[in-house]
């Protein structure tokens, strides 16, 4: 938080300091007596050349963050020169949320609700996140999967209506921008009143080449970085002013968009490999020149590029790929609990599992890699023993070394060499051959887990584990209802998208499906990385995050057979995940935050993590601003 050339790096200092004129350290201590700061260790000279400015009257009326609508008291309106800007009523944030919820629920389609919520976020940040945090189970599917898929498909049509004029939803970069990349990044200031003070902590970047299961959407994929960062805020309390959505527009190979007169992206095909990697190199170099401590999350890149970029940068900069590592961690967590469940109830030993992946892209291989690490770590299996637990299936069938086609690099490791020349294409034949205990779908093949496949699994297993993980819902391999009906309610189930509960028509019993939502992992992982400030995000940190999630269920949740905790507890879950990341970073001597390394116990770290979560009620109350002025002027 730059204040007259000084940066307070302790995240728990409230950004109310932005609202009043710059104060010295002594004044800050007087204003926030219940918070402790070590100014010698937490203040450094700001790298910004401009002095951060207090929000002006215009900022308070128009900035999405500083705009508080009619929550401002009469006295504050007078003090700020805002009389006449607002109706006479003075309402609480809770009352404003009530009105917003009524309007949201009056919208007829999910896309209309998405547009409403986007406009709300771009006009009143605090109200948007108050609504999102309080009603997360209702809002999350509207701001991310499954609705974000529809929003991306229509992004060029809805883009002008997502925000008021002059408000930016994210940073758009193209090949043509590369010669001036640092200047463009420095000039991007999304929130008025933050001149010289924009200092993002987390960026989510995509090139739109593989959006969910929808393919190459080009610039229309911007909905993904935006959506992810909204979940960082709601799920882990990342300050929304410290988020940076980025779409690297390198063109598109989607003929539909190249011929669409309303498409808002570059109308050219994607570049060759050398040009691609050179462009990404320059963008990342520019980002780290301007923001050296920035955590960069790669999201929805084509499989080959996703692995290529992760392998190139994971040991060089603070980065991770959520499709590979985040998906792997969240599915590993659910599978840990599923394996515990069937071991306890059906006496299936962990080492006896046989896992079929239907789909062999970056997400599938990422998941398999982390599950393999789990078997090796927890059950002392050798690498070769753990590797042989998996059978991967792509569009050509079961992946084997002697199938006769050239395998993509990321598929080679799990190609089977013990098939004795047998090749299988149909999933029903593969199930008969492998006799799997676990079936995981990451294929975007709607209905691939049909009743024949599911019924056969139920014949083979007392409690078949089925994870249809493809997003959005229209791409899922099966629904929860189909899985329950085809297995006589015996399935242990988790999906990648939300499905409604299933009511047993015979007993009336309600069964709630698990959802392997990456939201359980990446917000806490990101927050932990921001607080510990490690040199890199290690495989051990990802594994620790998955294990912390698996262990975060309450006794009540386990008693109901759940594989994942309630989303209503997402902040507490994210705190556990973030703390696990911080602890592992310290154990590996990767943490560079002196504050984190000085904390001695798990409980101290959890308390510190929780204290550094941004809240929708932070910096909102009219009397907060009034008190600040009174204190500053006393």
Give a written overview of the molecule.
The chain has 634 residues and is an alpha/beta fold. It has four domains: 60-91, no CATH class; 94-317, 3-Layer(aba) Sandwich (Rossmann fold), CATH 3.40.50.10380; 325-516, Rossmann fold (3-Layer(aba) Sandwich), CATH 3.40.50; 519-612, 3-Layer(aba) Sandwich (Rossmann fold), CATH 3.40.50.10380. 45% of the residues lie in helices and 9% in strands. It has 29 helices and 17 strands. The strands form four sheets. The protein has a seven-stranded mixed β-sheet, sandwiched between helices. Strand 13, helix 22 (480-486) and strand 14 (492-495) form a beta-alpha-beta unit. Helix 12 packs across helix 23 (522-532) and helix 16 (322-346) crosses helix 24 (539-550). The longest helix has 25 residues, at 322-346. It is globular, with a radius of gyration of 25 Å. The model is unreliable at 1-52 and 621-634 (pLDDT under 50).
């Amino acid at each position: 938080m730059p204040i007259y050339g000084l940066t307070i790096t302790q995240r728990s200092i409230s950004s109310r300091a932005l609202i009043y004129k710059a104060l010295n350290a002594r004044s800050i201590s007087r204003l926030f007596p219940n918070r402790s700061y070590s100014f010698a260790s937490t203040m450094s000279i700001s790298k910004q050349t401009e002095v951060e400015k207090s929000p002006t009257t215009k900022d308070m009326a128009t900035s999405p963050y500083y705009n508080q609508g009619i929550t401002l008291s009469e006295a504050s309106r007078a003090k700020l020169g805002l009389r006449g800007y607002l109706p006479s009523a003075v309402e609480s944030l809770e009352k404003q949320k009530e009105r917003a919820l009524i309007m949201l629920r009056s919208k007829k389609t999910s896309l209309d609700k998405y547009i409403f919520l986007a406009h709300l976020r771009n006009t009143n940040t605090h109200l948007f996140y108050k609504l999102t945090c309080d009603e997360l189970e209702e809002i999350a599917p509207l701001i991310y999967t499954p609705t974000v898929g529809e929003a991306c498909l229509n992004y060029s049509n809805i883009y002008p209506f997502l925000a008021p004029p002059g408000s930016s939803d994210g940073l758009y970069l193209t090949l043509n921008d590369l010669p001036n990349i640092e200047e463009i990044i420095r000039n991007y200031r999304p929130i008025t009143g933050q001149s010289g003070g924009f200092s993002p902590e987390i960026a989510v970047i995509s090139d739109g080449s593989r959006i969910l299961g929808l393919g190459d959407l080009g610039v229309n994929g911007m909905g993904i970085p935006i959506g992810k960062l909204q979940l960082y805020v709601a799920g882990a309390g990342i300050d929304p002013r410290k988020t940076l959505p980025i779409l690297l527009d390198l063109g598109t190979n989607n003929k539909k968009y190249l011929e669409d007169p309303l498409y808002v992206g570059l109308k050219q095909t994607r570049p060759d490999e050398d040009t691609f990697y050179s462009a990404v190199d320059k963008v990342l170099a520019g980002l780290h020149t301007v923001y050296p401590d920035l955590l960069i999350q790669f999201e929805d890149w084509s499989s080959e590029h996703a692995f290529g970029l992760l392998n190139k940068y994971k040991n060089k900069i603070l980065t991770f790929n959520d499709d590979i590592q985040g998906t792997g961690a969240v599915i590993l967590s659910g599978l840990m609990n599923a394996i515990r469940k069937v071991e306890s109830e059906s006496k299936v030993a962990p080492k006896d599992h046989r896992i079929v992946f239907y789909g062999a892209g970056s997400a599938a291989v990422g998941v398999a890699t982390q599950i393999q690490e789990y078997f090796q770590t927890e059950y002392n299996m050798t690498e070769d023993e753990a590797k042989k637990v998996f059978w991967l299936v792509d569009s050509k069938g079961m992946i084997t070394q002697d199938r006769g086609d050239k395998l993509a690099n990321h598929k080679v490791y799990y190609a089977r060499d013990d098939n004795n020349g047998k090749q299988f294409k149909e999933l029903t034949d593969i199930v008969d051959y492998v006799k799997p205990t676990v079936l995981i779908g990451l294929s975007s093949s709607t209905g691939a887990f049909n009743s024949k496949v599911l019924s056969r699994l139920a014949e083979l297993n007392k409690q078949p584990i089925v994870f249809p993980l493809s997003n959005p819902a229209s791409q899922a391999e099966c629904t929860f209802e189909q899985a329950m009906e085809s297995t006589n309610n015996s399935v242990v189930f988790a999906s990648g998208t939300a499905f409604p509960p299933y009511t047993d028509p015979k007993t009336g019993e309600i069964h709630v499906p698990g959802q392997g939502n990456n939201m359980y992992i990446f917000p806490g992982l990101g927050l932990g990385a921001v607080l510990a400030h490690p040199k890199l995000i290690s495989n051990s940190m990802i594994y620790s995050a998955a294990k912390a999630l698996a262990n975060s269920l309450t006794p009540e949740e386990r008693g109901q057979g759940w594989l994942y905790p309630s989303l209503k507890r997402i902040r507490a879950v994210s705190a556990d995940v973030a703390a696990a990341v911080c602890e592992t970073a310290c154990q590996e001597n990767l943490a560079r935050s002196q504050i984190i390394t000085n904390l001695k116990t798990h409980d101290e770290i959890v308390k510190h993590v929780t204290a550094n979560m941004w809240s929708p009620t932070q910096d909102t109350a009219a009397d907060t601003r009034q008190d600040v002025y009174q204190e500053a002027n006393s």
